[in-house]
Amino acid sequence: MPHMSYSPKGPARPNASRSRGGASDAEGVPEHARRRDAATIARLKGELAAQAELIREQGVSLAHSRKIFDRASAAARIGVWECSLPDETLHWTDVVYDLFDLPRGTLPDRQRALACYPPASRKLLETMRGRAIEERSGFTLDCEITTFAGRSRWIRITATVECEDDVPVRIFGMKQDITEEKLLSDRMRYLAEFDVMTGLANRGQFQASLSQADKAGQGRVGALLLIDLDGFKAVNDTFGHVVGDECLKEAAARLGAVCQGADLVARVGGDEFAVLLGPHLDRGAVSGLAREIIEAMAAPVSVRGQSLRLGASVGVAFVETEAMCDLFMKADTALYAAKAAGRNTFRIFKSDTRPRGRRADAA
Fold this sequence. Notes:
By secondary structure, the chain is an alpha+beta fold.
């Protein structure tokens, strides 16, 4: 009887080695590995979603910060600029365009922008810029520009040089509109140095000039004239302060016209003026100027239909070796000697006579 093999009926038994590893998918990947991969993918998706949300929030925050910066920049009239080196390509924020009266987004050209600066400021700007690039530093400069629309504007420029491997690659900074600040500063300085009513230098500037001359020593000042208006108090008391003020303005104008070559013409008191002269004038020239002042002040003053007459007494002191404070005291002494002599005249302080107050001798 021939030998025949025997095969059992029914489904085949799973491979022993595969059954020991647990269930697998159609590709033979174990169930636990598939679950692990799914968990990893879910975790990575969660992290990506969290990062996307963080980026979105940061974008919103950045946009908000940019909006605040733009509003603050516009309110403060501050713009940011950048100039690449060495090709000198410019990049401006909106406010810088506004400062120069250029349409926003226009490609800025450095040479055209430089043409907005007056020659002296342009030269100083180029000098400071070149030094900053050479020294890898920065600078600040206040200067006036004439915009492309023809407007006069003051700007403050700040600049910093950025380097890569010690090679300057760009210079950047801010430009700020300081026109109002400059006008206010000039106004404050004017009020500190000038008499608002007459436009002449005030007592503060006069004293500062004496102090500077004192520090500089001999050669800065040659003579001092003190002028007091004769008859002004009577006019002021009779016609009032408004008419009196007009008389002071006219007296100041006449004094300024006569003393155009003086170093300083100032109003140092109610109706008292001072004139500082340089050392180039001799005694004859100074005496001649004193006479011209008296003649100018003697002419009638027409105010509101009134023809008023004033006069002037002048005290003169020449610089010798004394301090400037002594010069003022000597001129004051000579002034009161002129008043004592009948007014509408001048007197020169005697160099050989010590001041003894307002009654001291004068020539």
